[in-house]
UniProtKB/TrEMBL annotation:
One of its GO terms (molecular function) is UDP-3-O-acyl-N-acetylglucosamine deacetylase activity. It catalyses: a UDP-3-O-[(3R)-3-hydroxyacyl]-N-acetyl-alpha-D-glucosamine + H2O = a UDP-3-O-[(3R)-3-hydroxyacyl]-alpha-D-glucosamine + acetate. It is an enzyme of class 3 (hydrolase). Keywords: Hydrolase, Lipid A biosynthesis, Lipid biosynthesis, Lipid metabolism, Metal-binding, Zinc. Its EC number is 3.5.1.108. It comes from Methylobacterium longum. This is UDP-3-O-acyl-N-acetylglucosamine deacetylase.
Length: 303
C-alpha cells in the first residue's frame, strides 16, 4: 500500500525561467523489433503532431479499427515490470522508454502508431529511440510549452521504497538503489537532452539472470505475456556481482531506474519542474507519485 505525505506549500520558490515553445518532430520515423513481455514483433511509426496534441498512441487492430490512447496518467493500467495505458479496452504496454526519450528530447506533440499491444524493447535501453528522434529532427511550434511547476513537496512511500518531489528549477533527479553483491548505487543530476542521451539513455532494463529465466519459463508455461522476450540481448542480466557482458555506464541499474522514472513522469502531460529523490523506486511508486501530485492541485502551478 502506498502512503502519501504532504507538507505545507513553499512560498519561497524561485521565479520561473522563460518558457520555450512547444515542439514536434520534423519528420516521421519507424522502428521495429521484438517486445520484452510478449516476445512478439512490433512496428511503431512516430509522426509529427500539431500544438496541444500531446503524445498519443494509436493501436491498429486486426479488424481494421484504430483506437487512440492518450499517454496521460488517468489512462494508466497497472502491469508488472512495465508502464501501460488503456482506453476503451485497448491496451498499449512498455511505453516508458519512448516516453522518456520524447520527454527528455523535448518533443511535446507526436502520434505513435503501433500494430501490436507492446512496443519493441530493442537492447533494453532508450538509445535506439533517441537516435530515431535525433534523425527525424525537432521543430518548434507557435504555442508556448506549459510546465508543471512544483510549489510544495509531495511524497509517496511503500516500505523501504520512497519517492518525493519538491520545488526547484528545471528537473533535478537523485536516485539510489542497493543491490546484493553490488551495494549502494547512486546517481544525481539535472536533466537536459544532452545529459539524458549521454548518461541515462544507454542504461538497460535489468534483473537477476536466474529470476529473469524463471519468469520467462513461467510466462511460457502459463501462456502469459511476461518476459517472453528477455535475454542478454534485451536486458542487463546480473549474475552475483557482475553484469553479463559488462555495464554500459557506471551504476547502470540506478540510471535505468531514473530512465523509467522520466518516462513515467511524462504521463503528467506536461514537463515537470522540481527536485525528485527516488529511493528504490519502480513503476508502481513512480505512477503513485504522479497521481498524488496531480490530485493535489495546491502542490503545483501550470505555468
Amino acid at each position: 500500500m502506498f502512503h502519501e505525505i504532504r507538507v505545507p506549500r513553499d512560498a519561497s520558490c524561485a521565479a520561473a525561467p522563460p518558457r520555450r515553445p512547444q515542439a514536434t518532430l520534423a519528420a516521421s520515423f519507424e522502428r521495429s523489433g521484438h517486445s520484452l513481455h510478449s516476445g512478439r514483433h512490433a512496428t511503431v511509426r512516430v509522426s509529427p503532431a500539431p500544438s496541444g496534441h500531446g503524445i498519443i498512441f494509436r493501436r491498429r487492430l486486426k479488424d481494421g479499427r484504430c483506437v487512440d490512447v492518450p499517454a496521460l496518467w488517468p489512462y494508466r493500467e497497472p502491469q508488472p515490470l512495465s508502464s501501460a495505458i488503456r482506453r476503451e479496452g485497448v491496451f498499449v504496454r512498455t511505453i516508458e522508454h519512448l516516453m522518456a526519450s520524447l520527454s527528455a528530447l523535448r518533443i511535446d506533440n507526436a502520434l505513435a502508431e503501433i500494430d501490436a499491444d507492446e512496443l519493441p524493447i530493442f537492447d533494453g535501453s532508450a538509445t535506439p529511440w533517441c537516435q530515431a528522434i535525433r534523425s527525424a529532427g525537432r521543430i518548434e511550434q507557435a504555442a508556448p510549452c506549459r510546465v508543471i511547476r512544483v510549489r510544495r513537496a509531495v511524497t509517496v512511500e511503500c516500505g523501504q521504497r520512497r519517492l518525493w518531489i519538491e520545488p526547484g528549477p528545471g528537473l533535478h533527479l537523485t536516485g539510489h538503489v542497493a543491490l546484493a553483491y553490488f551495494g549502494a548505487i547512486d546517481w544525481s543530476g539535472s536533466l537536459s537532452p544532452e545529459t539524458f542521451e549521454r548518461e541515462i539513455a544507454p542504461s538497460r532494463s535489468f534483473g537477476r539472470f536466474g529470476r529473469a529465466m524463471a519468469g520467462r519459463a513461467y510466462g511460457c508455461l502459463t501462456r502469459k505475456s511476461f518476459l517472453q522476450g528477455v535475454s542478454p540481448r534485451s536486458a542487463a542480466l546480473l549474475v552475483r556481482g557482475r553484469v553479463l557482458g559488462g555495464m554500459r555506464v557506471p551504476g547502470e541499474p540506478v540510471r535505468h531506474r531514473i530512465l523509467d522514472l522520466v518516462g513515467d513522469l511524462a504521463l503528467a502531460g506536461h514537463p515537470i519542474e522540481g527536485r525528485i529523490t527516488a529511493l528504490h523506486t519502480g513503476h508502481e511508486l513512480n505512477h503513485a507519485l504522479v497521481a498524488a501530485l496531480m490530485r493535489d492541485e495546491a502542490a503545483w502551478d501550470l505555468t
